[in-house]
Design brief:
- With 167 residues, the chain is mainly α.
- The protein is built from 10 helices and no strands.
- The longest helix is centred in the last third of the chain and has 23 residues.
- The termini are close together.
Length: 167
């Protein structure tokens, strides 16, 4: 979609478009109402500003719109509207060693138990082993710190998806 097309969408269609990029309702609503945008740079800057004004509840809401790293089954079912983008983002899992995949699955479970939300990482360009190492490192964080790290990763994902939306 081109920027002028995004600017011309009705509210419902614009909401649907932005929901593909981030699942936090407040972020989506504010992005819709911030239109029209003059450039991709303005879209990204507005996104950053809105995300910075979001709170922990918004972060956690956004996290629920992601599949677990490596969870191909949920990609196909629950996340149908973003599965192509999410699959591409998780491309580093292709051909990964089964032991690494199993450790990621176990690590995801432990992470959720400790922090109360799934492990969020901007997976684009990262191998399964790199994501596992990040997960293991982040497990050492305090929950009050980790929520902000995960929110930063969400923001990276959102910006990548905005660029895909407007490609």
């Amino acid at each position: 979609m081109k920027l002028d097309q995004l600017n011309r969408l009705n509210e419902d269609d614009a909401t649907t478009a932005f929901e593909q990029c981030c699942g936090a309702a407040q972020w989506v609503e504010r992005m819709v109402y911030a239109r029209p945008y003059e450039s991709l740079a303005e879209v990204l800057e507005t996104s950053d500003t809105i995300w910075e004004e979001c709170d922990v509840d918004d972060y956690e809401e956004a996290f629920t719109h992601h599949p677990r790293i490596g969870d191909v089954e949920s990609l196909a079912k629950k996340y149908a509207n973003t599965k192509v983008w999410a699959a591409g983002e998780q491309k580093g899992l292709e051909g990964a060693d089964l032991a690494v995949i199993e450790k990621l699955a176990a690590g995801n479970t432990a992470y959720e138990e400790k922090f109360g939300h799934i492990f969020i990482v901007c997976a684009t360009g990262k191998s399964a082993a790199e994501m596992l190492a990040m997960l293991e490192t982040r497990m050492k964080n305090a929950p009050k710190d980790e929520i902000h790290i995960a929110a930063g990763e969400q923001n990276k994902i959102t910006k990548l998806r905005l660029k895909k939306l407007l490609a």
